[in-house]
Amino acid sequence: MGSLHRSAAVIVLLSFITVACAEDDPYFKTKVGAAIGAMVGAGAGAAIDKNNRGRGAAIGAAVGVLAGGGVGLYMDKQKKAIEEKLAKELQNHDVELKKLPDNSIEVDLKSEASFASSSSDVKASFGEALAKLGGVITEYDSTAVHVIGHTDDQGATAYNQQLSQARATAVAAKLMAAGVNAQRVLTEGRGESQPRMSNATAEGRSQNRRVEIYLKPVVQGQEQAAFAPPQ
Q1: Edge-to-edge strand order for the sheet containing 105-110?
Q2: Please, what are the domains in the chain?
Q3: pLDDT band at residue 208, thresholds of 50, 70 and 90?
Q4: Buried (b) or exposed (e) across 82-120, using 16+ Cβ within 10 A?
Q5: Whole-number mean pLDDT of the chain?
């Protein structure tokens, strides 16, 4: 599609949206951003760093785009939906959830609940929780999904690195099986390199064994930031 035709199509689309959405609608900007996401897909993909596994234009087509003014409200709604779906897991502390200052959502999965010792197979009892989480993430498609595995320092460093990556991949697979588009998902294993607590105690090692899921908003004009690895 030529740039002139593309611009004209966007103008027409925005005209329909403007009529359909009341000006006092708190989601107005979010709706506009999401609606033009498909139109600017190729542009969004081009804005994403090539180091992100060559996803390019395909990402733009798979992911919605948020206007800056609606990001906070959009992510608050997503967090609330996760809280409702995973109420039991949160109460049991099998899952921890928090919103970060940059509007990202962090979902931490307790290793003892999700994996058997030294295994990368998600426990059958935890599969339902990931299916519910995946269902919410599917509905909120204007987010990049980062799945990061961590271990304690028991065993060889190379083995821990491999295990952390395998666990991240296993969790990502469950989310995608629940409907999350694979183009939104990035996985990473960080092994024993980022402990939360000292590995000198059993409690510390338990806290260090975890899988973290970061849901980062894809903001128009800042698409690359959403696909950059969380710090």
Answers
A1: 95-99, 105-110, 210-217, 143-150, 185-189
A2: 3-226 (3.30.1330.60)
A3: very high
A4: beebbeebbeeebbebeeeeebbbbbbbbbeebbeeeeb
A5: 81
pLDDT higher than 50, residue 52: no
pLDDT in tens, 19-49: 344 444 433 333 333 333 333 333 444 333 4
Instruction: State how far the alpha carbon of 109 is from the alpha carbons of 16, 59, 137, 182, 211, in Å.
Output: 42, 26, 15, 20, 5
pLDDT at 16 over 90: no
Place of tokens 């990001």: 71
Give dist(CA 179, CA 200) in Å, integer. 40
